[in-house]
Amino acid sequence: MSVDLRGRAAIVGMATAGTGEAPGFSAMELLGQAALAAVADAGLTMGDIDGVFAATSSHAFPTMSVVEYLGLRPRHFDGTNVGGSSFELHLLQATLALEAGLCDAALICYGSNQRTAGGRLVSMSEPQWHETPYHPRHPITAYGLAASRHMHEYGTTRENLADVALAARDWANLNPDAFARGPLTKEEVLASRMISDPLTKADCCLVTDGAAACVLVRADRARDLAAKPVYFLGGGAANWHRSIVAMPDLTTTAAVESGPRALEMAKVGREELDLVMLYDAFTINTVLFLEDLGFCPKGEGGRFVGDGRIAPGGELAVNTNGGGLSCVHPGMYGLFLIAEAVAQIRGQAGERQIADCDLALCHGNGGTLSSQCTAILGSEATL
């Protein structure tokens, strides 16, 4: 028998720190800044935090490192790391822990100084079997394969992928915190330096510093705290492979399972969503996830993103902060999807604020199109 988690927990504190470039700070120091700010946003103290959820790309034992650095003594902790989608999964895990009484205030946190520490894209977390003889440059080689296959099967073009990058930049230009702002044309995207055919530099996410953190409590407590609660309505996860060469179909991700699971728990339909936050590490991601989450048929994603459909003023608000392509991408991006959803639902997104934002989907991706985790967040009006 499944447990009904819809609306049982809420995000009551949210913060980011050091986004873009933060020279002189370690990954843990940036994480600490975000954590302190998120706890303060909730009107709580660090002494109130008795649950810790963390994943990082720089600490083998993330929760132990966080607990020591912040001086916490949690009753419950979880360092599940499934890549950039970890934090959407942590929302589900934290809600379960709160519902079970294992903790009363859960902190989810992440920090990275990837840009100022060197900005290397190659990670030892990548699989060292199967692919090593071919000397891939991970992760982009894997995503290039997926993009090439999608083009081969469905006629998707580089111009279609460029539409994703342009929409992200248009949203970033409305966000004063976005790292990459300014004019960008389709011609510039297409002429950008090729990195891994068919993906150019403009098809790739940023390499930035940054940290984010959020605090969850049970719903019955959320209304009494300082910030406007944003409720966890549903979550789902799916994982079919680790290495890209083991992916069953390069054009279909496990989001086809995680998305429906999250929507079913949340008891909402896609047509009800006001905001869609997708893990756009590369332009092909947005195309694949729009298809796999059911916003358009398989193979139609490239054409779906055309004509400004996902840009400001379009019919579907996607990645309103500018995404990993133009806002921020410090190695693992999933918690920043949540941060933007919270800002939009709270009505705190400034010039990029979308009207009447009550329901948001956050979809995280980990590894090389490997782990897929989806979360649905909503305002009090959705309960």
From TrEMBL:
Q: Name one GO molecular function term.
A: acetyl-CoA C-acyltransferase activity
- Residue ranges of domain Thiolase C-terminal in the record: 236-378
Leader sequence segment: none
Task: Give the NCBIfam families listed for this entry.
Answer: PRK06158.1
Instruction: Read off the PANTHER family from this record.
Output: ACETYL-COA C-ACETYLTRANSFERASE, NON-SPECIFIC LIPID-TRANSFER PROTEIN-LIKE 2
- Put simply, this protein is called Thiolase
Protein species of origin: Jannaschia rubra
